[in-house]
Design a protein that fits this description.
Elements lengths: L4 E5 L13 E5 L1 H11 L8 E4 L2 H12 L7 E4 L6 E7 L2 E7 L23 E5 L7 H12 L7 E5 L9 H13 L3 E5 H8 L4 H7 L5 E6 L3 E6 L5 E4 L11 H14 L4 H16 L11 H8 L3 H5 L11
Parallel strand pairs: 1-5, 3-4, 7-8, 8-9, 9-10
Antiparallel strand pairs: 1-2, 5-6, 10-11, 11-12
Length: 318
């Protein structure tokens, strides 16, 4: 559940102010996770709101094309679909958001009331949604506290966006929301920025509530900290990075796919890394994924073989 927007992007390396043409695509953290889960063979639905405009129809069509159910997306005739624009430059790519007052920012506590969502095994949320508006924050609080999807594991990616709210404002809210969830994903860098947590154990102490906390440390690897169990660290394989945007969503989808398939913590982290590798080597927010047999082979690798895994220049797709 969350907002997905239209993305405008000039040619690679071309500053926006000099661009004569832009490419139109679609991007959203939560729908990215849903798309990867669908491509990994799971049934996924995206819950959101779009404007009654061409951008909204493009967003819904794009998400549906990934195999994701979109029947729980409502159309708001009084608010536009959100948009962001990428601005490539020598220091990296800047992003300009045009989402204030968007249709998705008008989601409220009734958003998860649809009977079509009954029976969901996982509800995935992110820290982006509560920053959109007061009603969106109330919706996320409702989702993690009242648990309207009975029996669903609540997954939460902290996903702090400094452009939406500064760290000092976001930190207590995101900590409170995360601590009420079952599974939390957080980057080591954002945990340090938000809460001053210098390592995974410090994050775990800060978030005692969830059954599982996954701390991601970029190209280094990821650590899963389950209650009443020893921490498990799995290094990330080497890849050639084309575009880092969307890699965190891909990792979350891979980990969740491993959870849904009943894999052990090591293989869940490995699957997260392998799906993230596909995103890192793609220029779009959503990359194709290899056949499941490719994943199975690498999930079964010995610890030594995994530690030396190099996917540089060896991206496998369908």
């Amino acid at each position: 559940m969350g907002e997905t927007m239209v993305v405008l992007c000039p040619a690679p390396g071309e500053p926006l102010e000099h661009a004569e043409r832009v490419a139109v695509s679609v991007g959203g953290a939560e729908s990215n996770v849903a798309g990867y889960l669908a491509r990994l063979g799971h049934r996924a639905a995206w819950v959101s709101r779009v404007g009654d405009d061409p951008f909204g129809r493009a967003v819904v069509r794009h998400v549906a094309a990934a195999g994701v159910r979109v029947d729980q997306v409502s159309v708001d005739p009084a608010a536009p679909t959100g948009m962001y624009v990428k601005d490539p430059g020598p220091e990296g790519t800047a992003v300009h958001y045009y989402r204030a007052g968007s249709a998705a920012s008008r989601m409220d506590v009734d958003t998860l009331a649809a009977p079509g969502l009954a029976g969901a095994r996982v509800l995935h949320l992110s820290g982006i949604t509560p920053a959109l508006s007061a009603s969106c924050r109330a919706l996320v609080e409702h989702a993690v506290t009242d648990r309207p999807l009975v029996g669903a594991l609540v997954s939460f990616d902290v996903n702090h966006r400094a452009r939406l709210w500064p760290a000092e404002q976001a930190a207590p809210v995101l900590r409170d929301l995360a601590d009420r969830c079952d599974l939390v994903f957080v980057g080591q860098d954002e945990a340090e920025t938000l809460w001053g947590s210098a390592d995974p154990m410090a994050v775990r102490r800060l978030l005692p509530g969830p059954e599982t906390v996954v701390v991601k440390d970029g190209a280094v690897g990821a650590t899963v900290l389950c209650r009443d169990a020893e921490p498990v660290f799995v290094p990330a394989p080497r890849v050639t990075v084309v575009e880092p945007v969307g890699a965190g969503d891909a990792f979350a989808a891979g980990y969740l796919a491993g959870l849904l398939r009943g894999l052990d913590p090591v293989r869940r982290l490995r699957l997260g890394h392998l799906v993230a590798a596909q995103a890192l080597t793609s220029s779009g927010d959503n990359a194709p994924v290899p056949p499941w047999a490719w994943f199975e082979r690498l999930l079964a690798a010995t610890a030594d073989d995994w530690s030396s895994l190099d996917l540089t220049g060896a991206r496998v797709t369908t």
